[in-house]
User: Which sequence fits this backbone?
């Protein structure tokens, strides 16, 4: 086991793209989150009618996301995890590239000739997948902690309330990385696999979903990528709900497990493809 | 002698094409075993099956008297087709990785780099290498951890004449250390110069397996020339003991009956006032033997 991790880590740490990609993930994510508060609210805050009905609250009308409570606990967990979700494509493309290259340069074949079994090769890619997911989650988690300390009085609040949204982000990333591994192994060509991934994720599945059912209906929510996407719900309605009229959203653990199921299915299929294919 | 590898009716099909057809032979410890055959005769497919990258359709093989494929591979150094390395790593890093995969505790990286004369470029990235250097690195990688068996597929592919000679000497030197070498090639001269044993393949079938010396021309040929080639040809056509006659560039290639010695032929021609400027046995009996098998 340690041997496989050592092999995989050696492949990663000598790869410039790994450092560039992870650096990009860290810097883009923190730039976005640290500056998000300065962004003005859509329509510059609540409308005049809303303000009027609020009466005294007029004085407190927020103008920016920060004023609207973007950095306040507990909703910071949801806000940050939601935006971090857009950056999951960085580790996904990185992993896809990393797996696809093994086929493109025929180093997979060489690894097998040199003495790895197909199972060992596959397991070492799953390690990388886990490593990328955990690393991304840690980066997001640390960013949240820093923001939480900067903007909240922790003596009065429980830091960990709603932190399950971060686990939602973890699963969202884990799923997209599993899809990346699957496509990398299936297609064996990086660029083609990336195009297929994007087309499926942003065009084909939403189209199928709308074609066959409407959001919130059973089929739509159970298409492969869908559960992972709704783990961390969009935070706007909550942020714009100045007067706390709606129930705050929670992470739906049912979809967390469904995502894990789909991820396992993708990984199991990847292994079967490797097993059945000549090198 | 102990057999290091045995094949038993090994078969592989790609669609309707039978790439390897019930192949059986064995390789003795310490031999230099050449697998010889034209392009597409199944050499690489055979080695691919032996190294676990191609799944056999039927039949079996065993390394070291039936050791598991995983542990057997740690005793084998191999070069299959093209050299496959990580382009973003240096040569040294690539060798380090191979050593990790093979589970070699103290890899002899400097030694193998020295053997293939790549020490000076060892810290350059693999993608900057020329084809010849890539091939040499692949051989270095095969030599890591001093394997008991070396499997080489077309080891001189893409090398210049100097490189080919270097690799040939390296193989002879390795064989001299008692390492068993199994090499596939379509280059006859290469096999003839280094191999002790050969197996000849055509369209996946085994045509011959045995000592290299046994694969010889079944009939001797003589090359002759004189100043007056027309007279020579006319005279030879009348000679009762010459079975075949063929014009080859500057000389004539003849197949005499066994009872006719070169001396007797020379004398016979001299009596007819034809004096030879050239008389030799045909250079490659090995080549003739090979083509006789292949064209059967």
Assistant:
């Amino acid at each position: 086991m340690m041997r496989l991790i050592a092999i995989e880590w050696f492949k990663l740490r000598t790869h410039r793209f790994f450092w560039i990609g992870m650096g990009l993930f860290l810097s883009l994510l923190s730039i976005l989150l640290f500056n998000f508060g300065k962004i003005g609210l859509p329509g510059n805050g609540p409308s005049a009618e809303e303000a009027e009905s609020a009466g005294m609250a007029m004085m407190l009308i927020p103008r920016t996301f920060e004023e609207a409570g973007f950095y306040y606990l507990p909703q910071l967990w949801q806000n940050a995890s939601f935006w971090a979700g857009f950056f999951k494509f960085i580790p996904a493309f990185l992993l896809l590239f990393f797996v696809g290259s093994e086929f493109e340069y025929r180093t997979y074949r060489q690894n097998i000739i040199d003495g790895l079994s197909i199972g060992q090769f596959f397991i070492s890619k799953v390690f990388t997948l886990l490593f990328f997911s955990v690393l991304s989650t840690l980066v997001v988690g640390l960013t949240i902690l820093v923001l939480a300390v900067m903007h909240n009085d922790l003596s009065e609040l429980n830091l960990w309330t709603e932190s399950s949204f971060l686990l939602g982000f973890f699963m969202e990333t884990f799923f997209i990385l599993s899809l990346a591994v699957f496509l990398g192994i299936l297609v064996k060509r990086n660029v083609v696999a990336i195009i297929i991934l994007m087309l499926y994720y942003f065009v084909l599945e939403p189209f199928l979903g709308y074609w066959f059912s409407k959001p919130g209906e059973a089929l739509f929510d159970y298409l492969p990528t869908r559960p992972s996407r709704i783990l961390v719900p969009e935070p706007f309605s909550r942020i714009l709900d100045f007067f706390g009229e709606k129930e705050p959203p929670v992470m739906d653990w049912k979809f967390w497990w469904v995502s894990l199921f789909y991820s396992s299915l993708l990984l199991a299929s990847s292994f079967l493809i490797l097993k059945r294919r000549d090198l | 002698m102990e057999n290091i590898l045995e094949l038993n009716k090994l078969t592989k099909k790609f669609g309707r094409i039978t790439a390897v057809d019930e192949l059986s032979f064995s390789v003795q410890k310490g031999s230099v075993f050449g697998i010889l055959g034209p392009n597409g005769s199944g050499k690489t497919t055979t080695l691919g099956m032996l190294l676990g990258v191609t799944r056999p359709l039927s039949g079996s093989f065993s390394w070291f008297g039936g050791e598991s494929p995983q542990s057997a591979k740690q005793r084998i150094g191999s070069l299959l087709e093209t050299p496959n390395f990580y382009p973003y790593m240096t040569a040294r890093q690539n060798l380090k990785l191979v050593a990790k995969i093979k589970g070699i505790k103290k890899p002899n990286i400097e030694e193998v780099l020295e053997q293939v004369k790549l020490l000076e470029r060892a810290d350059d990235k693999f993608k900057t290498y020329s084809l010849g250097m890539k091939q040499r690195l692949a051989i270095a990688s095969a030599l890591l951890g001093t394997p008991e068996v070396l499997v080489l597929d077309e080891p001189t592919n893409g090398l210049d004449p100097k490189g080919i000679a270097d690799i040939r000497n390296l193989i002879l030197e390795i064989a001299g250390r008692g390492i068993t070498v199994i090499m596939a090639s379509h280059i006859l001269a290469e096999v003839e110069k280094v191999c002790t044993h050969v197996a000849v393949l055509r369209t996946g079938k085994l045509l011959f397996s045995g000592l290299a010396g046994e694969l010889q021309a079944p009939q001797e040929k003589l090359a002759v020339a004189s100043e007056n080639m027309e007279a020579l040809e006319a005279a030879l056509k009348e000679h009762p003991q010459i079975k075949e006659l063929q014009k080859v560039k500057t000389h004539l290639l003849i197949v005499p009956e066994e009872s006719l010695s070169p001396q007797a032929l020379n004398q016979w021609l001299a009596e007819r006032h034809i004096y030879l400027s050239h008389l030799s046995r045909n250079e490659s009996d090995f080549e003739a033997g090979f083509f006789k098998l292949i064209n059967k």
Chain B touches chain A at residues 48, 51-55, 70, 73-74, 78, 80, 82, 84-89, 93, 96-98, 100-103, 141 (CB under 8 Å). Chain B has ten helices and 13 strands. Residues 3-214 of chain B form a domain with the Rossmann fold fold (CATH 3.40.50.300).
